[in-house]
Amino acid sequence: MRILLILFYLLIPKSSHGLILMELGEQKKLSSPYGEKITISKPGLISIQEEGPFILLKARKTGTLFLDQGLQTKWIKILSKNGKIKWKNFLNLIESIPWLKWSFSKDQIQISGSIYRFEDWQKIAQSSKQNQIPYTLHADISNKVKKDFLKFFKKQKPFQILWHKPLQLIMPSHNNSSVFSHYGMQIISDEKSPPPLIELNLLFTEVISNNTRFSNSALSLIKDPLHVIQSQFHHYKNKGTGRILTSSRLITENKKSARFFMGGEMPISQYHTESQMINTSFKPYGLSLSFTPQVLSQSHIYLQLETEISEIDNSSKGFKNHRIHSEITIPEGQSLLLSDFQRTSFGKNQEQPLSLSIPILGSIFKQTGQSKEKSKALIFITPRIIQP
């Protein structure tokens, strides 16, 4: 299989880059059919002399120009002897890496194809730094390379990468960007960049309280990704020990608030003696979740969370409120678990006060049968960074 892959790679055509490297004072012959029109962009850098079916080029000054020859355009870069060696070494390195190719335009090397090993990307960056040759990266980056890159630079101050082509790196303007300058990415100051979007996936579930899979603490982190949690609850449903009640999704900008509300409105009537009129207003009750996320890095999100449960108090004809304020840093791909919702049911169809008037949550604390049983609601919050 490895031999077949190598043969397949060798059959892939390399770049039709159309770049000619010349040393200062060097002469080079190019074929040129008789009568073909030739145009150069900077005549002062190079001289041209016709020799039958060829043209003779002589490099006079260092610089970059293009030569139009019929339907073909060739870029010519004139360098010192040492400069030409550096450029050849850099381009030879790119051509030695499978699945990569390069092209040249407007005095800039563009690398395209696919990168499957972070070590290859590091070799290119090191050669770019050593030879002082800039380039832009238009290649597809595998998921493994993305993870290796973020792990390698995890000690750097917060930054964000847009993995589309060309690659862009967003970081605060006061940060030192020199460590990234040879990785072929366009570096954008945070003040000029579009704010990242954060997706908040909410999963409302119910489990029997003797289920010890999840923590009994009011707030905890779950390392399993969301699809694993969902799969676990499908298993609980088959065993009769848990279920998914509903799910929802919110999207907000970085450092902007988002709110989820589930509940209803209760009419409140007030009699005004002066006007002898009854005014009716509506007060919301139910479950309210307010989020303010902040991207700390490509892999961590800081989340401020306000949780409020308001329920109708029939004894006082008012409301009971339960509020929780939380601040926590969540690694991307992990979930925040809220589990401070628990009551005991006795007898048949007996309901407990907390959350019974709230849709979804009310159904959790309603049990049938004569046995004493505890049930708890679990709310999973899974944030994810979305590239704008």
Number of strands: 24
Strand content: over 45%
What would the principal axes of the Cα set say about the shape?
elongated
Q: Give the % helix.
A: 10-25%
Biggest sheet details: 6 strands, antiparallel
Task: State the low-pLDDT regions, or none.
Answer: 1-16, 343-361, 363-372
Secondary structure topology:
Elements (H helix, E strand, L loop, with lengths): L1 H10 L7 E5 L3 E5 L6 E3 L5 E6 L2 E6 L3 E7 L2 E8 L1 H16 L3 E6 L2 E8 L2 H14 L3 E3 L2 E2 L1 H10 L7 E3 L5 E4 L14 E4 L7 E12 L10 E4 L3 H14 L2 E12 L4 E15 L4 E21 L2 E14 L4 E14 L3 E4 L3 E4 L15 H4 L8 E14 L2
Parallel strand pairs: 1-7, 9-10, 9-11, 13-14
Antiparallel strand pairs: 2-5, 3-6, 4-5, 6-7, 8-9, 12-13, 15-17, 15-24, 16-22, 18-19, 19-20, 20-21, 22-24, 23-24
Helix pairs in contact: 2-3
Task: Provide a brief overview of the structure.
Helix content is 18%, strand content 47%. The chain has helices at 2-11, 81-96, 118-131, 143-152, 226-239, 361-364, and strands at 19-23, 27-31, 38-40, 46-51, 54-59, 63-69, 72-79, 100-105, 108-115, 135-137, 140-141, 160-162, 168-171, 186-189, 197-208, 219-222, 242-253, 258-272, 277-297, 300-313, 318-331, 335-338, 342-345, 373-386. The strands form six sheets. Strands 15, 16, 17, 22, 23 and 24 form a six-stranded antiparallel sheet that branches. The chain has a four-stranded mixed sheet with strand order 1-7-6-3. Strands 8, 9, 10 and 11 form a four-stranded mixed sheet that branches.
